[in-house]
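Posted in: Structural Biology > Protein-Ligand Complexes

Title: Requesting predicted complex, glutamine in pocket

I'd be grateful if someone could produce the 3D structure tokens for the following input. Sequence and ligand are given below.
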Amino acid sequence: MHDSGIAQLARALRARETSATELAQRSLSAAQAQAGLNAFISVCAEQALDAARHADAALAAGSVKALVGIPFVHKDIFCTSGIRTTCASRMLENFVPPYDAAVVEKLAAANAVSIGKTNMDEFAMGSSNENSCFGPVRNPWDTTRVPGGSSGGSAAAVAAGIVPFATGTDTGGSIRQPAAFCGITGLKPTYGRVSRWGMIAFASSLDCGGMLARSAEDCALVLTAIAGHDARDATSVDRPADDYIAALSTSLKGIKIGIAHEYFGAGVEEGVAAATQAALRELEKLGAVLVDISLPNAPIAIPAYYVIAPAEASSNLARYDGVRYGHRCADPASLEDLYTRSRSEGFGAEVQRRILVGTYALSAGYYDAYYLRAQRARRLIANDFAAAFASVDLIAGPTAPTVAFKLGEKFADPLAMYAADVNTVAVNLAGLPAISLPAGFSAGLPVGLQLIAPAFAEARLLNAGHQLQQHTDWHTREPAP
Ligand code: GLN
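-- Reply #1 --
Done. Output follows.
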């Protein structure tokens, strides 16, 4: 099971070599055996075994759905009816949603079997998964190191072989960076490709649901199940999804990959740059043509993102006021006291920092100087990509400037933590799809290759990833048990 992806497990299920119930039981025991990773906030054995029984019945009735009976986990940011959904915050520690998120509905309809909800940075704010009220997640490759964030629990659960895939969200890199740190594949779809309905909001113009899995092929199977229009999310795009599976086998001959030197700038570790270059040479062997390009506004992506994301967060998080739901302080003396104490007790330090920064950036006196300027920067960044995609099909670089860092290493220094997102946030600002692919190792730790595509060209990303994975074996490597 440990080395099996979705495609292999699906074959075994159809050949009756195993059952959905057996797979669910194995995942549940693996989750328990690896509890030290702290990858889970909730393990849902009863619901999982129930869903597995349904999947077995569907299999017996001849279901050909690609994900039937496949165990997986949801990031604890997706609302699950009757199962608490915390966003790793004291604020929502006891929140039990009355409905399922669109992504949850779709994977349930596909008869995939969720075994639980994964740990994450509080409200998806972070790059190390240390901002969780349930404590940090550990990286299965080296448990003294972070798994990346904010989808760290999802990444650790897949990398440790507990499940073959996991859902995640990516506002500034939270699928791609943990995928890179944990040696797995992670896809951030185009903004609007996957419904955000029931996905707890962080920064609404940037948030995207997606997945982490062992291979590009597995990501294609999951994207097929979750992509599509949803009238309940006004930003969901009414455009049919492509055939992501059929596209996997296209040849890469003649495909142009732009190498932006800005993505190899100061701060990128030598070992990371070398592994990324080696992976690019493999793509070259498959017929890809590497072209040097420039994304001149790349250096302003971090400052723009760290104004826009907190501004939107400050607005989204205003709903947690201790009145309707979420944490409420004891014995409030007044309405003001209720707001202040509920929010001070319910939100962790990083979330409070973002609310302060965001509220400041949106305030009457500073709006022009910060928020408006950040929006202008966002337009320049999107224009850079548009100009580059006039002459190349994909853009490549390292997903993250470093390999997984030590727990605690950047925790006290928010700016050093924010710098971990240097190669990922621009993609969200421009609304584009991107994938992180395992690309070898530096000092024994996984390195991720990021490929970026024009809007709605997920099929091209998955195709390039699959072709690379047909000819290399980095994605099959596993941490020592
Ligand atoms: N690390 C980034 C942040 O803290 C991105 C997080 C995300 O993608 N959810 O904002």
